[in-house]
């Protein structure tokens, strides 16, 4: 067994790394909501009337955000959670700059009983790179 590992060290390392990445993605999905791409989010907004929630801070949000998104800064998310109660039956897509704060916010929503919670993979950066609209209004 040791000889096999020594002879195939690069492949063993790649297998361990790949397994670790799969576990990390699974943990992220478990911790927060399932990740959706910008295109999937657009379809959900158009077909299911999904609600987009932006958890970036005010300065970030003012610099450009997804049209019609609701702004609830992550620093105020727990105390402003009741604002989303009326949308409990709808899909909610949470976004931030890169996807980390929104993953935490998705976890909070799940704990509060929201069933259809999704994290915008890559955040507003991925949305912008996909050529989708951003507004400053």
Explain this structure.
With 137 residues, the chain is α/β, with parallel strands linked by helices. It has 2 domains: 1-31; 33-129, Rhodanese-like domain (Oxidized Rhodanese, domain 1), CATH 3.40.250. The chain is 50% helix and 12% strand. The chain has a 5-stranded parallel beta sheet. Helix 2 crosses helix 6 (100-111).
Amount of helix: 40-55%
What is the number of E strands? 5
What strand order characterises the main sheet?
Answer: 1-5-4-2-3
CATH-defined topology of the largest domain = Oxidized Rhodanese, domain 1
Q: How many discrete structural domains?
A: 2
Beta-strand portion reads 5-15%
The whole-angstrom Rg is: 18 Å
- Class from secondary-structure proportions: alpha/beta
From N to C, what is the helix and strand string? HHEHEHEHEHEH
CATH architecture of the largest domain: 3-Layer(aba) Sandwich
Which stretches of 5+ consecutive residues score pLDDT under 50? Answer: 28-32
3D shape: elongated
CATH superfamily of the largest domain: Rhodanese-like domain
CATH domain class name of the largest domain:
Alpha Beta
Largest sheet composition: 5 strands, parallel
Number of helices: 7
Mean pLDDT: 87
End-to-end separation:
63 Å
Descriptive key words:
2 domains, 5-stranded parallel beta sheet, 5 strands, 137 residues, 12% strand, alpha/beta, 50% helix, Oxidized Rhodanese, domain 1
Question: Quick summary of this structure?
Answer:
The chain has helices at residues 2-7, 9-31, 38-48, 58-62, 77-80, 100-111, 123-129; strands spanning 34-36, 51-54, 70-71, 92-95, 117-120. By secondary structure, it is of the alpha/beta class.
């Amino acid at each position: 067994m040791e000889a096999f590992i020594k002879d195939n060290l690069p492949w063993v390392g790649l297998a361990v790394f790949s397994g670790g990445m799969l576990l990390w993605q699974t943990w992220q999905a478990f911790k927060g909501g399932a990740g959706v791409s910008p295109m999937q989010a657009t379809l959900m907004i158009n077909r299911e009337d999904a609600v987009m929630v932006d958890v970036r801070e005010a300065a970030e949000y003012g610099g450009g955000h997804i049209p019609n998104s609701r702004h609830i800064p992550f620093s105020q998310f727990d105390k402003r959670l009741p604002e989303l109660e009326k949308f409990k039956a709808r899909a909610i897509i949470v976004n931030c700059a890169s996807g980390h704060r929104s993953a935490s916010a998705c976890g909070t929503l799940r704990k509060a009983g929201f069933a259809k919670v999704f994290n915008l993979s890559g955040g507003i950066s991925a949305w912008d790179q996909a050529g989708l609209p951003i507004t400053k209004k």
